[in-house]
Amino acid sequence: MDVRHSSGGRAVIHFRAAGTVLLLAHLLFVGWLTLRPLDVPWVTAANLQPLAGIRADLALGPVEAARRIGEGLLLLAPLGVLLPMAGGRLLVSPWASMARTVAAGALISMAIELGQTGVPGQVVDVDSMLLNTTGIALAHLLVVPVSRARLRRGNRAGAGDLSHLGHELRSFRNEAPQGATPTIPRVGIAP
After folding, report:
1. Is the model's pTM score more than 0.85?
2. In angstroms, rounded to a whole number, what is the distance separating the alpha carbons of residues 53 and 58?
3. Looking at residue 89, what is its pLDDT?
4. What angle do CA 31, 33, 34 make, to 5 degrees?
5. CA dist., res. 173 & res. 156, Å (int)
């Protein structure tokens, strides 16, 4: 259910607009960071074997491994919060929200990796896609359910009571139809 049509609809529209602007700004930053050509003397081969790059990072020592894995987790992690924020839904299943957000984030990560195939100095790495998607899922799990619960509580206590939305939704489903569906008489087929 979308909250746009409730009494707090104006605040939701502002919330969605802010989420959309922040989402676009973050995507532009990530695009600039990951799709710009690099002048490097040599380039490693593409990593198409899952977890091979993570194992290689772990072999570099704990500090360097934490830095590299952390960069992969944090690059797209804000999408775990910004995608639901841009959607503006307050009353939604946590699992459906998680599935939509992770799927959209995985597609964005895959688009970035595919875009890197044509950029000099950038290399495709399947592990970065796995880390990016995991970062999105973790950010979503840590922030979105708590934020939505807080916003629902705040709406009940303050700006607009959302408790009537569940009742309105139930009564909408149980309403009688508004009349017969108009039909068009059949036209005979010519011989």
Report:
1. no
2. 9
3. 84
4. 70
5. 23
Determine contact, residues 54/110, Cβ cutoff 8 Å. no
Q: Which two tokens stand for residue 190?
A: 């010519």
In three-state secondary structure terms, 125 is strand
Q: Could you report the per-residue pLDDT of 32-44, keeping only the tens digit for each?
A: 999 998 888 878 8
Contacts of 45 (CB under 8 A, 6+ apart): 123
Strand partners, 47: 125
pLDDT digits (tens, 9 = 90+) for 132-183: 999 999 999 999 999 988 888 876 654 444 444 455 445 545 555 566 666 6
Spatial separation of the C-alpha atoms in residues 53 and 46, rounded to whole Å: 10
* Helix ranges restricted to H, 36-125: 52-59, 62-75, 79-87, 94-115
